Amino acid sequence: MLNFFLLILIYTGIYALMALGQNVITGYGGMLSLTQAGFFAIGSYATAILATRYGWSFWATVPAAALFSALFGLLIGLPTLRLKGDYLAIATLGFGEIVRNVLNNWDSLTNGPMGIQKIPMITIFGFVVNPYKKYAFLVVLFITVFIAYLLFQRLARSRMGRALTAVREDEIAAQSMGINITKYKVYAFILGASVAGVAGSFQAAFTLSVSPGTYTFMVSVMVLCMVVLGGMGNFKASILGAFIIQLISYLPQLTGLTAIIPPQFKQILFGLILVIMMIWRPQGLLGRERITYAKGGAR
Amino acid sequence: MTLLETEKLTRAYGGVVAVNKVSFAVEEGLITGLIGPNGAGKTTLFNNITGLDVPTRGRVLFEGKDITAAPAHKICRMGIARTFQNIRLFKDLTVVENVMIGRHFKTGKSESRGRFFNAINSYIRLREEEEQIYGRACEWLDFFDMGGMKDELAKNLPYGKQRELEIARALATDPKLLFLDEPAAGMNPQETDHLMAIIRKIRDLDITVVLIEHDMKLVMSICDTITVLNYGQKLAEGTPLEIRRNQSVIEAYLGKEE
């Protein structure tokens, strides 16, 4: 039972990283993207391949994973710049599926549907972070989440966060205020992608194997749910949303009711949550974060 | 001295020529009015100058430099700011944040150093930078006597104040040239008077103002020179007095006597 709760916390951490990224893209940039699963997969495979084939240590693969994902963030960001709303959602959804299909079929690199096994565990100065003993892994993961949170929080309170907000609010007015909207939209994608790549690295180091089946469209939907549930434009809320959604999705197992409640139940529940939120609390549980400016600039 | 001029600027949407070979000049330090009946192409001309639209033919020169078809954010950075006919504030942001966005490109840049250095430097000196931006934004709000509404959401301001906030936001970019697209539209007479005082104050800051306006009282009393457009073409230009007596202008507005 406790063990199971720890598992939920670990997935909360991994998904929280993705949700932070989604929040930059959707919450701040106002772009409805459904592609976090794709970046997540790219990050996982970057870590898996670099660690198993080239013997890189986990910590060397993390920046590489972030970089790879960021590169793909740029590649998806540039052509979809002119798309908005549902059109953007469909284009990005397509990208996520392309990634999964490539992973499924590029046998020489990804080992196809079999995936890659025997990924080495994380080590810190000779100390092995064994994912089966969850505490150490949790600590490492949540330190990473915390650092990511701090970085994004600082970003949101800077000129850049404000510019991104301006782009979301009114593109034409933002342009006329000297903001290069193309640049900021692509930035949002790059940042969102790179942090999802890091989440992918942790996923690979936790399960110690990767296979394309993990990175389905459902992952992107869950991440979007987390951001919407918590509150768009609020990084704390994204982490909270990640926790709640993970808790719900493992509810049958957690309560020992797997015999009664089928696993598909969680999909019904996600749908319900989104509908209920849209009706009664469209701003999310915590709502958008307001920055209060005192005499000394941002708090 | 001519600050900005368009050379035979033409903008056609398919067969409809919205602006037809208009050569329009703005003299530095003056308030220039741009008037004309509805659909005369005034806003289209503004959009083509400020980079929101691309002219079909013709050129736009700012301080002697060709800025035709430059993207809007670059034009803004050169020192041309604008407001919009249908107010385009960042509605869900506070008043002060709106103005702070106007300061966006004015901070965190050191010409002598590279992009990367600037980014790192901005990151470290975030607080200092934000204080500067906030301070300047507050100064502009005080200029409009709006210091007390700093933390209101922009959408909650009364209509006249929203128009003024939009001007404040444009001024925050430290422009040399300010375009106002129907600043008095929908204002009551008191608000219009306040606006006229503000436009004069802006001119006194050595900022050249160009305004589109239908309120003739405002146009005739504060503009130093007026250009009249009709059906996309330039009909007349001159001082308010000359325009008032110009036969073709009167015909354009009131119709021709048979």
Could you describe the 3D structure shown?
The complex is a heterodimer of chains A (299) and B (258). With 299 residues, chain A is mainly alpha-helical. Chain A is 69% helix and 3% strand. Chain A has helices at residues 2-28, 36-53, 58-77, 85-105, 107-110, 134-156, 159-169, 171-176, 181-207, 217-230, 235-249, 251-254, 265-280, and strands spanning 122-124, 127-129, 293-294, 297-298. In chain A, a hairpin with a 2-residue loop joins β1 (122-124) and β2 (127-129). Chain A is globular and about 55 Å long. The termini of chain A are far apart. Chain B has 258 residues and is an alpha/beta fold. Chain B has a 6-stranded mixed sheet, with helices on both faces. Chain B has a 4-stranded antiparallel sheet with strand order 2-1-4-5, covered by helices on one side. Chain B starts with a strand and ends with a helix. The mean pLDDT of chain B is 87. Chains A and B meet through α7, α8 and β4 of A and α2, α3 and α5 of B.
Layout: helices, strands, pairs:
The complex is a heterodimer of chains A (299) and B (258).
Chain A (H helix, E strand, L loop, with lengths): L1 H27 L7 H18 L4 H20 L7 H21 L1 H4 L11 E3 L2 E3 L4 H23 L2 H11 L1 H6 L4 H27 L9 H14 L4 H15 L1 H4 L10 H16 L12 E2 L2 E2 L1
Chain B lengths: L1 E12 L2 E12 L3 E5 L6 H8 L7 E6 L2 E2 L5 H7 L1 E3 L12 H8 L12 H10 L1 H18 L15 H13 L5 E5 L7 H16 L3 E5 L3 H7 L2 E6 L2 E6 L1 H6 L1 H8 L4
Parallel strand pairs in B: 3-8, 3-9, 6-7, 7-8
Antiparallel strand pairs in B: 1-2, 1-4, 4-5, 9-10
